Amino acid sequence: MAANQKLYNPEDPKDAELLRSMLDDDDEMDYQDELLKSDNDFEIEEGETGTNEIEIREESSDTEQSAESSSDENELDFFIGRDKIAGVKGTAREANSPIETWSCFITDDMLNLIVAWTNQMIESVSHKFQRERDAKLTDIVEMRAFLALLYLAGVLQSNRLSLEELWSVDGHGVEFFRLVMSIKRFKFLMRCLRFDDQTTRQQRKARDNLSPIRELFTMFVENFKSNYCLGQNVTIDEKLETFRELYAGRQPEKDYSISNKPSDVVKRLVTPIYNTGRNITADNWFTDVDLVSHLKEKKLSYQKE
Predict the structure, then answer these.
(1) PiggyBac transposable element-derived protein domain spans which residues (predicted)?
(2) Which range marks the domain in which residue 35 is found?
(3) Which end of the chain has less neighbouring CB within 10 Å, N or C?
(4) Does the pLDDT of residue 66 top 50, yes or no?
């Protein structure tokens, strides 16, 4: 059975003086010996174990302690994101080479999806070829090689060169292209490359104009979320992109119709970081009183740029 404990009240002058003397002394053990010899200041009762226990009461009441604890908990709701460090996470932390890093964002599942729908297209046109090898099905290895050539063409800034010039053997071409695959095979894969089920595309396109790449694009975005951690401060801003397409005018509402109000755009973008205590910075175009109130409810702060 534990020994009775003596509690000190800092508001009591006698206890306050005693506590002050204990704090001023460098050698705590010496003062414990002196306290044991003093019978007038406090009482010590020994338990069955024969040990003496001393407890110093720092709060004047349980109510005060409870109020401070509640206040701290409320403040922590808005500072959860202060320890967020921007950088890679998940499988990306284990990537040690460019190809391993690339595979974190373009996964084998995505490549297998491309291979499956590309092969579907190849099978649908194979009857047009006299030789079976001219319409051979592709696989994930060849698909990686095909994508590598597209990357290489971009690195070499050869967007103004024709395929014949890249595969040329007169000394002006790039030997690497010829070593990977023939120009005939490259053109065939480029023509048959697909990212969705062509048998259901028209049905899906009636509801979603992005249906040809919707599944692949969604997987791509999710890979970024799972492999990169945003920092404490997040910035949202608009950016103009060059785009050439026919203007379709106003269209009927569809399943994928969304609001393009600036405040609604912000809400959609920050949904993955709700309740993390991060700070959102944006300019006047996005700033709105209702938006700030909404973000506060989601434990996010907002700062106008």
Answers:
(1) 97-244
(2) 13-83
(3) N
(4) yes
